[in-house]
Amino acid sequence: MGQHQHTHTEVDWAEMAAHLEAEAELFSPLYARAAAWLAERRPDPGLVVDAGSGPGVVTGVLADAFPGARIVAADGSGPLLERARDRAGRHGYADRFGTLAADLPDGLDGLEYPADLLWASRSVHHLGDQRAALAGFAAHLAPGGTLAVLEGGLPARYLPRDLGFGRPGLQERLDAVQAEWFGAMRAALPGAVEVAEDWPGLLSAVGLRDTTSRTFLLDLPAPLPDEARAFVVTVFRRLRESFAPSLDATDLSTLDRLLDPDDGASLYRRPDVFVLTAHTLHVARARP
After folding, report:
1. Percent of the chain clearing pLDDT 90 (strictly above)
2. pLDDT digits (tens, 9 = 90+) for 145-172
């Protein structure tokens, strides 16, 4: 899933499709390293399921990492699954690709076979009872199958702490606003249950074993290529639109300068824009 950039708590994933694709494509080197690490641990899965696949960018990364596997993209959004199907056709793995219209985790009951590898990338935190969701995922693993959950890591950074105008530390303050939104989003989910987000502990609690975690870095230094710079502009535009009521006048003015293409200090022109973040992958296995 993408950045958390809405003040309301219901996310329109179809409306966000283009942004989700742009983010996943930009972050693909991170996902590819994670998938390669998984491939070393689980080299020849017969069925790989991407639970909460969105538009299928990461599904394609998994298809590349596991060229002998059948790949299924499972998601509750029909428009996003259509994008995933189109991508599979364009990238040459449509002959071993399928989709499943599925609200997680119960919708996975529609799988024809249990999964040898079930991947859930930043989708579990959108389910009210996260432990129950993990138990549901685990129930759809083949004997000895692997559950890989990408959750947590570090907030993304795009700019230096001091921009040369406004108050230093803008991104830290935006993080705090996003954290408040995230808490409200979680609390509003159907069946929301508060739980300590100890992902290895949660995986063990639902009966999986051999839990381990590894964090993967995305480091795109300045100067950014055009597509990465355009993505950063979109991130900050969404932040400005979504969180304006929670920001003071100084920070709003700073965001307006950053988003003004005619300003020499804007995101469009400044040479110091970068992308730096880290995502953590938690992995566990079902009993043989």
Report:
1. 92
2. 999 999 999 999 999 999 999 999 999 9
3-state helix, strand, coil in the chain (%, to 5): 45, 20, 35
The pLDDT of residue 17 is above 90: no
For 287, other C-beta atoms within 10 Å of its C-beta total 11
267: how many CB neighbours lie within 10 A of its CB?
24
CA distance 99 to 80: 10
Contact 140, 108 (CB under 8 A): yes
Distance in angstroms (rounded) separating the CA atoms of residues 21 and 83: 9
- pLDDT at residue 66 is higher than 80: yes
Token digits of residue 27: 């972050």
Domains and CATH numbers, the chain: 17-285 (3.40.50.150)
